[in-house]
Amino acid sequence: MVGTDLKVETMKLMERRGAIESEMNAIIQRLCQPGGPGLSGNLVDSEGFPRADIDIPTVRADRHRLAELKNDHKDLTEKINQNIQLLHTAKPSSKTSAVMDSENRKETSQSVDHVQMRDTADADVTVKIPFAMVDEISEASPAADDGLQLGDQIVKFGNVEAGDNLLSRLASEVQANQGHAVSVVVMRQGALTGLSVTPRPWQGRGLLGYVG
């Protein structure tokens, strides 16, 4: 019964996290629409005056709310992971399978088993954590051309997943795969999506053209 209760709690936490992700995506879309200030762009013009083309109080409120949501998302993810570890400890021999939350998740077109949930009492649960979010993306960049979007939360980039030394590992993965397609898994509007991104030179900086 304890395991069943823990699974029910974990499902509810995942639903709450999905709602937070939807709200975060809506804010990101507002801030990053054409002509918008982005997530960290200046709110003053070149002469130091407040920009007249944006609603500065609304932008500040959106950025503040986004920061709150990121913290809430982090806390929920940590709690979910704690529950998952307890479930794994209780059921060490359970076989992992790729089953999504029936309301807030859908299967990707690729064989990704990073998020799963089962209703049966003897099922197990595994979740992979997004380790970066696409805050800015340049037009005509490899990332944009290959399908990455603003607000995408990166779960896996090639062989890189959440962990230590992410920046150096990502940089090495990108350099090692220049000119070669890399499998990428992102969380987009609450659902896992599989992409293929090819790091390559372009007219801008780096080999991808996005900031995470």
From TrEMBL:
Q: Cross-referenced Gene3D superfamilies, in alphabetical order?
A: 2.30.42.10, 6.10.140.1710
Biological process per Gene Ontology, one example term: proteasome regulatory particle assembly
Q: In terms of domain of life, where is this protein from?
A: Eukaryota
Record keywords: Coiled coil included?
Answer: yes
Q: Which Pfam families match?
A: Nas2_N
Residue spans making up a coiled coil are 59-86
* Plastid found in the keyword field: no
| Record-annotated Nas2 N-terminal domain positions | 12-88
Any one GO cellular component localisation term in the record = nucleus
Key words of the record: Chaperone, Coiled coil
Cited InterPro entries: Nas2_N, PDZ_sf, PSMD9
Q: Which PANTHER family match?
A: 26S PROTEASOME NON-ATPASE REGULATORY SUBUNIT 9
Annotated protein name in UniProt: Nas2 N-terminal domain-containing protein
Query: What species does this protein belong to?
Result: Opuntia streptacantha (Prickly pear cactus)
